UniProtKB/TrEMBL annotation:
It comes from the Eukaryota. Residues 82-159 form the Casein kinase substrate phosphoprotein PP28 domain. InterPro entries: Casein_kinase_sb_PP28, HAP28. Residues 1-114, 148-178 are annotated as: Disordered. The lineage of its organism: Eukaryota, Metazoa, Chordata, Craniata, Vertebrata. Pfam families: PP28. Residues 47-56, 99-114, 148-164 have a biased composition (Basic and acidic residues). This is HAP28 protein. It comes from Pitta sordida. Residues 1-11 have a biased composition (Basic residues). Residues 57-66 have a biased composition (Acidic residues).
Amino acid sequence: GGRKGGHKGRARQYTSPEEIDAQLQAEKQKAREEEEQEEGGEGATGDPKKEKKSLDSDESDEDDEDYQQKRKGVEGLIDIENPNRVLQTTKKVTQLDLDGPKELSRREREEIEKQKAKERYMKMHLAGKTEQAKADLARLAIIRKQREEAARKKEEERKAKDEAAMAGKRLQSLSLNK
């Protein structure tokens, strides 16, 4: 096999603590310079965007925020016009439109439709118009008839029993009178 060695056997390179400190101080210095440019150097820099902002202080700072966002990698070097890329814009409380109609998601719409269909079915079911309701009503009618017949039979049996008991008492009373 013509295998080549992996990365594990190579000599490791460590950054010395002095280099790390130097990098951190360079980053802090760069951040301070940017802050000074933002605060004090508005007129002196000659940047047309910042001069426009100083004149129009009523406008929101959305463009400035997007411009100052920290960019990763070569993103800061190349301007990309991607129509699919949506920048997150923060809206102020005064800009929010609470009165407008709220767009529902597909799941929310389906859930609402499902609830409405269930309500319609229950109304029709209570009115006796669905097949299941008709079957239930027919079953109930059969059960009512069976119960009425059972009650009638019980009543007849009870009457027959009472009559038999009365007849037995009469025979007993006649036999005692003799």
